[in-house]
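Note to self: keep these together.
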Amino acid sequence: MDKSFFKKVENKTGMGIDEIMNLANALTHANFSDEKQVRKIVKKVSQIANKPITKDLEEKIVQSILKDGHSLDFSKIEKLMR
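Structure:
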């Protein structure tokens, strides 16, 4: 693995390499039609990114992901967070 790449990601996100790898693993194996799992991932991403979200925004993000089922549209989530 390219250490400089991960260093750039760490600097930009404030997330350590272990957190990044754990999140990537969780997203890879996630069932995006399981509301409980989706909600857990949304909360974890918010926590790791140090970007608190309201219950209302969490609900919108979760419902957006559940609506799309097995795909995850990051651009749609980004728009919700603005």
